[in-house]
Amino acid sequence: MTVESVLTRARELGITLTLNGDRIRYSPKSVPPDFLDELRQYKAQVIERLQRTRCCRACVCDAYDRRTEPNCPACQSNTCATCEGCIRASLLWRESEACAVYAATPLPDLLSRLKVGITWLTERYEASFADPDTFDADVFGRWLAEWDYAETALRGIHGYGGCIFDDCRCPDDAPIRCSMCAKEGG
């Protein structure tokens, strides 16, 4: 078990974890006892992750009232003046109805796809210098666009706020960075 699996299980159980100082608050108050045992075992790591993880909370209004200043802590998108939810996340939720693949993909699987995607993109990017005649910019562009879409879905649909890599830093040689590392300059 890892801190990621504790957080994933919380999401699967519909449990919201928040911090109040150095204490973890959970809602609803009624949670399975074995989950509480896991939470206690990984308390320090969960607190550390919650302290550095920011996530989108989608706007739930039918007709949102867009603020002029972007202020979503996770994606820097505009938020709704009425509910203070992220408009970009709301749009992704609505789009996810048509693109159920990301909504139905478990978080660990989506993270794995993104990691594999960075590896593939890095290999193709490096190969483009070695043999530019065989580099297919269209294929690379489609993969890059799909990777970006999956990463956006990770944030908006799954509410994930950290780096996609376990050590919380994208590879230095990657031609792209996840949005959290890009924001932090990592």
Query: How many runs of DSSP E, i.e. beta strands?
Result: 4
Helix count, DSSP H or I runs of 4 or more residues: 8
Please report which band the strand proportion falls in: under 5%, 5-15%, 15-25%, 25-35%, 35-45% or over 45%.
Answer: 5-15%
Radius of gyration over C-alpha positions, nearest whole angstrom: 18 Å
Biggest sheet character: 2 strands, antiparallel
Overall mean confidence score, pLDDT: 80
Q: Give the helix proportion (percent range).
A: 40-55%
Q: Can you tell me the overall shape? A: globular
Supply the helix-strand structural class.
Answer: mainly alpha
- Uncertain runs: none
3D structure, described in words:
This protein has helices spanning 3-13, 33-41, 43-52, 87-96, 100-104, 107-130, 137-156, 179-184; strands at residues 16-20, 23-27, 66-70, 78-80. The protein is mostly helical. Strand 3 and strand 4 (78-80) form a beta hairpin. Helix 4 (87-96) crosses helix 7 (137-156) and helix 6 packs antiparallel against helix 7.
Task: Summarize the model shown.
This protein has about 190 residues and is mainly α. The chain contains eight helices and four strands. It folds into two domains: about 5-50, Arc Repressor Mutant, subunit A; about 105-185.
Helices and strands in order:
Layout: H1 3-13, E1 16-20, E2 23-27, H2 33-41, H3 43-52, E3 66-70, E4 78-80, H4 87-96, H5 100-104, H6 107-130, H7 137-156, H8 179-184
Antiparallel strand pairs: 1-2, 3-4
Helix pairs in contact: 4-7, 6-7
